[in-house]
């Protein structure tokens, strides 16, 4: 059996070239900034890697048991092998929207343009069919604003020994005091977050409901009163 071996030029999301025999492959990213490879209306995520090769699987490999696969070199510039054994149809419009969404995320955090300008620049060259399927423009603008706010947030600490809580996390959106107490770095660190209004409500309550979690907290126990 002879395997088909192809060598392609892989393009970033803002570069489009078309070849006579084969489709263009485009590198993009997911919403969580994971590598994404787009080809013929199909999307691929990284399955595994070794020293000189990356194995990509169809994004529906788990959900639909799809067998579509692509192999590239380790720097994602050359396609070595393509397996078109998909059990579902491709969707070129969805791939186009994925590229549009990546452009929006990138410009939102790396450009000083206002939200309308970001949107206008990202809509350039987007087909009418893709424009008809993207979310409402107001929703996209809110996402741009939200991403910019989140980009300004400090990194989440991985342990209880970090020195100081960033000022942006000690205030509410109305710039009212939110951090009420911090015992300081150490294994027995205690931090209390609350607005003054919430404290007054608790003070006047006859019953308190307590909820806690272990999994999402760097502390041994995270307690919430309501």
Describe this structure in words.
- With 226 residues, this protein is an alpha+beta fold.
- The protein folds into three domains: 10-83, Single Sheet (N-terminal domain of TfIIb), CATH 2.20.25.240; 92-151, no CATH class; 167-225, no CATH class.
- It is built from five helices and eleven strands.
- The strands form three sheets. Strands 1-2-3-4-5-6-7 form a seven-stranded mixed sheet, with helices on one face. A two-stranded antiparallel ribbon has the order 8-9. Strands 10-11 form a two-stranded antiparallel ribbon.
- The radius of gyration is 24 Å and the shape is elongated.
- It starts with 9 loop residues before the first strand and ends with a strand.
List keywords for this structure.
single chain, 226 residues, alpha+beta, N-terminal domain of TfIIb, 3 domains, 7-stranded mixed β-sheet, two-stranded antiparallel ribbon, 5 helices, 25% helix, elongated, disordered N terminus
CATH topology of the largest domain: N-terminal domain of TfIIb
Return the structural class. alpha+beta
Count of the domains = 3
Shape: elongated
Task: Summarize the helix and strand pattern as letters.
Answer: EEEEEEEHHHHEEHEE
What's the total count of β strands? 11
Task: From the alpha carbons, calculate the radius of gyration and give it in angstroms.
Answer: 24 Å
Give the termini separation. Answer: 67 Å
Q: Indicate the mean pLDDT.
A: 81
Q: What is the compact description of this entry?
A:
The chain is of the alpha+beta class and 226 residues long. The protein has five helices and eleven strands; from the N terminus they run βββββββααααββαββ.
